[in-house]
Structures are given as C-alpha cells and as structure tokens.
Amino acid sequence: MSRFRFPAGRLPDEALLSGLATGDPELAVTFVRRFQHTVFGVAIAVTGDPQLAEDVAQQTFERAWRHAQIYDARRGSVRTWLTAIAHNLAIDAVRSRRPEPVAPEDLEAIIGVVSETPEQHALADEASSRLRAAVAQLPPEQGRALVMAGIYGMTAQQIADSEKIPLGTAKTRVRTAMGKLRTTLTSPKRGDHVQ
What we know:
This protein is mainly α. The longest helix has 23 residues, at 25-47. The radius of gyration is 26 Å and the shape is elongated. The chain has helices at residues 13-22, 25-47, 50-67, 78-96, 104-112, 118-123, 126-137, 140-150, 156-163, 167-186. Helix 1 (13-22) packs across helix 2 (25-47) and helix 3 (50-67) crosses helix 4 (78-96).
C-alpha cells in the first residue's frame, strides 16, 4: 500500500514550523523559501545594508528553528512571529554597529566647514545656516560632543571614551550644548519685528 504525502508547499505555516523544529529537511527548506522574502524585506528595511540584512535573515531562521516549540498561535500568525524576530534582530544589529571614531581635530574642521558648491547652496536653507552658525558659536568641547551625539549617533559613554573625560562631563557637555542651541534658535533673529 502506497503512502499518500501532502505536498510540503501546501502545508499550513504552523505545520512547516513544526517540521522545522523536528529537523525535517524538506519542511525546513519549504519554510525558509516561504518566508525568505518577507524576512529579508524586514531586515533590509531596518538596516539599509544588504549584507547585514542577509546576516539578520540567517539569524532569524536560526532563532525560529531554536524556538519553534514556544510559538503560540493564539498570539499571532507564524508570519507575524517571524517578522517580529527579524525586526528585533535587525534593530539589535544596527545598534551594535559602532560608529567609526573621528579625531577631535577633524570634528572641529567639520563644524567650521561651510561649503560653497552650488548644489549645497541650493539645498541649504536659512534654518540650516542658523543651525551651523549656532553650533560654530559653541565652545569647541561642547560642539564636538554635540556633533558626536547628534550626527554620529554616539552614546554619552562613547563620547566620554573618545574625549577621555568622565561620563558625567560628556553628558553635561551634550546637555549644555543642546540648551544653548535651543536658546539661540528660538530667540528672534535681528531684523524680525513682532507686530
């Protein structure tokens, strides 16, 4: 008597996930093929880096394989569960990337540079000019801390390590710089008349 076998590609998502957990190679391949575009799509949307997104997708399927037994259909579909895993792993991957260190003397040059190219003139508006001018007026150590945090996304601890200062000092520099910018940018410009 021949055994009837349901095509793996037509199995419900939950059955494929169960097959993945048991180590069935055919069901595992079918599971990955069914969700690979979705998982990669989530990863690339968060990371913006195809290579990193591939790594995240691989980690997502590994995690799904390791944790398939704890999947609970009452809390959402397999697709929702898998995309949540991919999203969380992608966010972790982006957070774990360390910004490339920039020498403090280079930061001073970055702060002070105002380019004269026609493209940048066309794109630069009055608000960005005021912001650059306000940052340039800050004391150099506050300007560097602000640029490190705001442009390079460095944490206060990373700023402290880079500048070789205590963590509290780094936090104070960023907070003080932000306060000065807020005051400068919210005060009326010369020539503005309130009527």
